[in-house]
Amino acid sequence: MFNRNRCLRQLAALASISLVAGCGFFSDDDSDAGPIIVGTTSAPSTLDPAAAYDGSWELFRNIYQTLLSYPIGATTPEPDAAESCEFTDSSNRAYRCELREGLKFADGSALDAQAVKYSIDRIMTIKVPGGPSSLLGSLERVQARGDREVTFHLKTADATFPFVLATPAMSIVDPDDYPADALREGTSVSGSGPYTLKSYKEGDQAELVRNDNYKGYAERRNDAVTIRYFGDSAAMVKALKDQQIDITYRGLGSGDILELQERNNDSGLQLVENAGTDISYLVFNPKDPWAAKPAVRQAIAQVVDRASIAHKVYRDTVDPLYSMVPKGLTGHTTGFFDSYGDPNADKARDTLTKAGITEPVPLTFWYTTDRYGSETATQFQELKRQLEATGLFKITLKSRPWKTYVEGYQKGEYPVFGRGWFPDFPDAENFIAPFVGEENALGTPYPATRITDELLPRSRRESDRAQVAKDFEEAQDILVDDARLLPLWQGKQYMAASEEISGAERALDPSTIMMMWELSRKTSW
């Protein structure tokens, strides 16, 4: 790390030479300029990995450590806390990892195989509704042998299990600080990631500083990062323009994206665009008497105009999506377009009439106010307009901040609600498996035995993921017929940053989680 103070002392002795030569020396070294400040609209809902199956992972990736992760350019998991990992049998049912030697948590206490076992076991013991335990459905037991060897014994073959271990849900925690059968309270964490959490104020900011005990693949290009959480994109972008933050991530508004594109860096800011596999979709709750009716769901699927949402609300910074599996992944289809075609109110009316529904259907649509960007409210207003324009529906809109919003959908309180999904790992399975089954990430039971008992288990036996396209296509046909989940659009990843910041173009892993250690300030001479 470049030391500006030392450099300035050296330059003082050369001042007369520098002035005569007409040379200027200056540096924007991180340690002297303070932490890099990242703005986002995606605040954590919890600090305990056993509870989180949401955007909390963006913080976890930087302060906790997992056995496997994604170095720059990797699309499959590679060792992080582990030195090596591999399936030890031909049936993909025993997965063994050997830890790096001398691992420590940030406070200096030892991180060993027992800590790994403890961390995974408590996820399955606590089993938070809608939490990450659903990712471990194929896991039978964890075996720790000695200080460095951990073996995961699986109930069935699961070629995707290394991807699961690479998710921040599988973060390793200190057994001395995290109860075995309850979530940890408070705002402190005990991890072994590239940074340690110096301070945390819920909904406001997280201060990250370098963890000197970290041993892993990350090469940190800064000493400290502060993450500031914003309730809407307008406030976040204003903070960027006012130089109160250095870079934005998650929640950048479409208007701001277009403005930056048009100004072509004249503003002193840069726009970084990355391909994205994040999606937006609606969830229908079978506990609600109206949302439980297939005809109601199918009629809504028949009239929702995705192209209008993408154009009018998001100004073409997102693409219409007709499948729960986004474009770019093996298994993507256009099932909802193939089955329903263009929006058609007459067809929707026929569907409802055949089911004996002749009066406008009353439904309440819920959305979160501070998670997916300021356009979320406008998107739901557009959905309400589209549905009510047919005369077939009467829509009431309600909203909550993310933390209470999560609690509500996990309790099954919402008839219809909006969700966004950022992939746990880059595989079609991750856009199907988390949403089906009696216990899933949405808190709304979705029994789909053909998918859960046949298609997914069969696909998990195949290490070559290109060979499972037909299984995922069939699974999506089932999702289209049920219309329990209604995809709306697929997004891209945009970041706006000061021209002084570098590394944004390489800072996203395949799950579109920001690796804060890749960010740095440009140093000039």
In CATH, the topology of the largest domain is named Dipeptide-binding Protein, domain 3
C-alpha end-to-end distance: 16 Å
| Main beta-sheet strand count, sense and barrel state | 6 strands, mixed
Q: What percentage of amino acids are in beta strands?
A: 15-25%
Q: Which CATH architecture of the largest domain?
A: Roll
Please tell me how large the radius of gyration is.
Answer: 24 Å
What order do the strands of the largest sheet run in, or round the barrel if closed?
14-18-13-17-15-16
β-strand number: 21
CATH class type of the largest domain: Alpha Beta
Helical proportion, percent range: 25-40%
What's the gist of this structure?
The protein is α+β, with helices and mostly antiparallel strands and 525 residues long. Helix content is 29%, strand content 21%. It has a six-stranded mixed sheet. Strands 8-9-10-1-11 form a five-stranded mixed sheet.
